[in-house]
Specification:
The chain is an alpha/beta fold. The chain is about 35% helix and about 20% strand. The chain has 2 domains: about 270 residues, Rossmann fold (3-Layer(aba) Sandwich), CATH 3.40.50.11550; about 80 residues, Pdz3 Domain.
Amino acid sequence: MPRGTWAAPGPAGPRPLLAPELFAALARRQVVLLGETHDDAEDHRWQLQTIAGLHALRPDMVLGFEMFPRRVQPALDRWVAGELDEAEFLRESDWRQVWNVDPRLYMPIFHFARMNRVPMIALNVSQDLVRAVRERGFDALPLDRREGVTPPLAASPGYLDFLSDAYVAHARGDGSAAKDGKRPPMREDAAFQRFVESQLVWDRAMAEALAAALKRAPAPLVVGVLGSGHVWHGYGVPHQLRDLGVADTAVLLPWGPERECSTLVAGVADAVFGVAAPERLAPRSRQRLGVWLEPDEGGVRIRQIEQGSVAESAGMRAGDVVTEVAGLPARQPADLAEAVQRQAPGTWLPLRVRRGAESLELIAKFPPAEPPRK
């Protein structure tokens, strides 16, 4: 795929598309789904460009995100309303606990929604639900544990093949499928069946949230931002949307040079856009306290401390409960993590911890920056 161009995959190969004609047609759809590789910066630039182009033609838009579970919807509403800054939004949406992909990849899209007052909706459910389905099966869960998700439509044969490849790649631990391309006979394997069922529940939950957004007045263009695996060949979320009565759906994918040409076939997506090679953001230089954290009533409990860490030097112990950081309450692990990450090299961070019946004041002293190498 040439960079910067659109094409429609077909039996005779990709057919070039003109952007004005494509976007005019997309703006008349009910739902447009934008696939992504979560940690690829180029994919997110393409998503923002596509969202902006669609918004110019259809400003009555709603943006749905796989990255957020339904329980954090109030944080999305407050962000779009301009009531939260970035740090508050990431904290209230429980970003680091739920998604933990570098937020810099997504913030331009979130700012676009905020600037243009485009409603953002949480498409996902809790990780606990998906995990429970994988362990026990959907039917074994009582209604009050299903988070309102209805029974999903069974997977198509093509989706079972796709999920089989993913399952094998995960089992191999290196992200690759079997070298001979043959899929092992696992359709009757209970673990694989639970894996498929958990994926279907995940797809169903996102499809339900997208379908519900269509009921707003006036009927908006609903754009979903989610992993490519949920939309590839229309197997996942589009399949569940059709079962919910939403058939007017378009799937768009970024197509970079790392993808096999043989996979650019009819049905993989309604349209693809040529992008550059994947780009991963360089990690930010951050301070480390050297602790494992867990929630605790009235603070944040230190579960484990690394030897030789800043925490150990500060006199912290496993079992301590951090109640204040820099004079502010520590209510959840993210409060402490964010305070540590804001520290500059060579600075001190005051902490108050509860140790048994005692309340102690400790100082975490972060090392100075290393001088540049000559």
